[in-house]
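Support case: user asked for a sample of complex input and structure output to validate their parser. Sending the pair below.
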Amino acid sequence: MAWLTSSCVVQAMQSIRSPIALRTLLPQRSAAHTTHTFPRASLSTTLQQRKNVRTYATEVHQSSEVPPAGEIDFEHFRAMPARIVPVSPSYFSGIPKFYDHLLRLERLLALNATLPTVPSGEAPRKAWMKIAQFREHLGEEVPTKKYMGLLKVVYRLNCIDPSLIPEEVNAALQEFVRPGNPLGEAPAPRQLDELGRARGKGKRKASNAVVHLVEGEGEVLVNGRTLAEVFPRLHDRESATWALRCSSRLDKYNVFARVRGGGTTGQAEAMALALARALLIHEPGLKPILRKAGVVTVDPRRVERKKPGHVKARKMPAWVKR
Amino acid sequence: MPPLLNLFAARTAVPALRVSAAAPRVSLSAAASKSHSALSQRRWNSSGSDGKKESEEAQRAATSMPHVSEEAAEVSRIMDKEKRCDGVPSTPELQQGTMVSEILSRDKEAAKHAPKVFQDQIKKAQSGSRSFSTSARRGQLEEQKPSGGDANADASDAAQAAMVQSMIAQVTEQAHAAQHELAPGLKFPAPETLPRTENYRSRYEPLLEQFTKMMMRDGKLGIAEKNMNFILDHLRSSPPPNLNPRRPLLPGGPPAPQLPLNPVKYLTLIIDSVAPIIKNKPMKGFTGGGASVPIPVPLAERQRRRAAIKWILDASDKRRDTKFAQRVANELVAVAEGRSGVWDRRDLVYKVGIQGRALVGAKPRTRSRI
Amino acid sequence: MVSPFCWGCLTPLRQTSRTILPSPSTAVSRGPAFHTSAALQFMGRPSQGGKKGSTVLKFRQPAVAAMKKKKKFVEKARPPPVGERKAIRKRIVLSNPNALEVEGLQELSEETMVDSRLRGTALALPVPMLDQLRAVQAFKPKQGWSIFRRPCTVLRRETLELGRFFDNVTGDVERRGAVIKKIVGGARKSGKSVHLLQAMAMGFIKKWVVFTIPEAQELVSATSSYAPLSEENPNLYVQNEATAALLSRTVAANKDVLSGLRVSQNHPTVPAAKPGMTLEDLAKTGAQDQASAWAVFQALWKELTATGPAPGLEKHYTPRPPILVTVDGLGHWMTESQYRNAQFKLIHAHDLVFVRHFLSLLKPGQDQPSLPNGGALLYATSTTNNPPYVYTLDVALKQVAARDAGVEPSSPQFPQPEPYSKTDPRVFEVLESPKSKHAQEGRLQHQILGGVTHDEARGFMEYFARSGLLQETISDGWVSEKWTLAGGGVIGELERIGKRLRVAA
């Protein structure tokens, strides 16, 4: 895999790179440009010798509908190439365009490696292209692992101090940003609707809850029933209204909730999360308190799935001798 | 951050207010109401009007800390430059000395022999007439008095005095309101801090939660909670324990007759009193032949409680009461009264621990060391 | 020392020996000759399950003896004696000596029960009355009496209304003889049974005669004796045991009132009822002699509802007091009972004369009100103890409420059962009560108890705090928070919240 190390490829290619670049359009699917170059020293002799020699690679095949490569117009050749070398060093890899990008980025990185960087958390947030998008963009089946490697270089370049980052690098990075840049602007803060209601959603275990919160005097309806009817356990009732309780607002709002799925604990705690989120729409200043009370923290735990060969999620069948 | 006003800051704020409000001296009530409206407008103005800025600056000058560099210079002056010869930082008192009058006021004997000038000064101070005014406001009014000189001037003085007074009242009120003013993003006053029990996940007393969860079987927490409530109600309604002097509860708790009124404290006291402070861990390698020797190991609070709860639950299984919660509750009361076998169990642990204490901290011998 | 024999020399020797040897009769060689190891193992196995000869291995049966699981020996105490569990379950504790004595606690009395200024405060039940209330089984085990110093009830709006009615019927001349008929409903723990208890307490204060059926289920659950009423009515059944129990309850609770009243009617069916004997003695005869219990009860009822003496017995007659009848758990009376008739069919609850008597009181009386001397009928439904099928009762109660609100039965707004639902026509029939001809007799109402108000909740919570059970600062915000947690002030839930402990105060 030594050829993957782009720097040695670059060095190798630079040694054979020539100032004369004669281009011809090859009707390839990827529309890549190949350049026919040859060492200038042997030009005069080889040109004479091979004037009338046709190389089969450049022959026009009348029989095939779509020619694999366009005809090289030898009339306009100032010199006959000794052999035709592609302009891209990654021409013979399976995913040449990908390696072109990678090489370009690595060159940029090598050039700008000495620039000061910021911690990755403070670097400008950008949404990079996802693998599927990138494949579609290039038209090549890029392996996931390779793309991840490329993204690592992108991350590193993005960490260059934003005030010092060269325009070239910025432009290169911009090519990898997902179209539309979803992270570019923060979502607008949610507002009360025209009737003064705030709506919040929450999930916990297998339950989900939607809460509508209006200013009022402490009435709570869950699925159209009172709190005591829905949650016979006092603990659950407290959980469900904890956001209002810890900020001593239980008598200042009316709650209308809809909970679905799961058991009572999950429903109560899903409602707690939904209620806290709805309350934050009314009063964003409560966030530190609610955070401290633990009601805005999402509990992402779910039941672990059962696996084949196991009795439960992790339990294995008992060992039996034969 | 709302402008924090207090009475000290008000003194500096008043002149600024007077400049704007004193000009139309029409009548007392009008002036007062005008100043009131101006003030109230200023108070709720969110666009940062000039008046507010002015008063804010005045307050900042009065209340804010000095610049960082000034403060650093001050600190270094105190800490370094004004050191005494022995290198201890000096205090202003050491540096500048105590006021003589202060010494004289403490020491009557010295006062008798003080110079005549000092004695005269002391007498003057005792007579009550100060050579300087302590009230800036009164001085200002007196200054303005001769300028008018008529009844008209008198009336205007009275009006001005009333106005200044109303201003001060306003400013105090404002300062008062500023403390209760809501932070942005709040509709109602909110608590500043939350106690630990106001967290959603730790709303119960740690011991209650530990006990409840140890009583839980098959993951049925609701049933365990019901049992816990029964136990607490039993502790609340059973007669106060007759404490056994041989098995005392931990000191520092309420006296026995008051225990049932606070069942959670009662329960905590019982558990903590019977909780062992060590555990005997059998360890190999101290004696030959691979025999294990119990070595005492200290326990943390939660571990101690766990051991005690486990013993109590085990002991309650042997009781012959109708239901589980009843058995546990009776066992708890038995522990409080020193009748329970849990105490013997703890004594046994301590006995074994005392036997093995010589080996605490020793390292077991490894077999193949040549 | 090289052996003189080589392997080649020995090989034919071995072969010959094998063929020459006679086949031994041991078990080993009975196995297949080509492979002996399995046979060895096979023979070495102990016989399974003690059966000799059944040594056939099952498919994939492990060839080693299975390890026996050690049985854990758990030392367990013997179970409690028979009946103790039930006794503890049914035990009613009314006092907790550890709780603090509440200062300035007022008792329920003639003055306090109509005083609207006291609304929302807890009133203690008078100590002498506790025996009467216990006799009529007014207290239930899970009503939370056991943590307070003495039993108290909160004076809520409904209680005050009831108190005013009791006051009017006894005191006001115009309202004398008034009757209210209510079916008390409401959410779980909303205080229905305690409402009945308050009514009983007021009845005792006002010297009414109180009849109670604390558990309607006991009359239909086939746990007491029953018999056909008579030859003429083979489809009606009498429950003498239950009737005797009712009489003894009534005698124990209303001793003072009944001992002041004398028999002043003719009772041809009851030979024991002699003119001039006190009603207490009359009821006692029924309580002691179960065979005559139903007849004695009828005689007693006739005496109590009499508006005047029979001819010739004027000297024994004194005006009769109003009657309070309470029934708890009405749902059980609105379906088939667990009793069986001679054809082994379930008997409908309305065919039990005891039940039928008390249900017939809900209908307006024909030539005089059903309770001519005034009184109250309070029948409470239950939300937790119901027979499996009470849909009919739900609809019937809605109809009662609609009729009371003035909706005509012919109008489309009148609640009707679902078209294809299974309903019981007898239930509709018994709860259908048109307006009475008598002005004093009220119409059947469905009273729904909801949550208490914030003020009442605050009074209740203050009572907890003053009893030393609740160690928190009670503020309006705190109370309204608990009010919400109690599902909108449901009083039973408030009680649970009040005694709950989360942290050491």
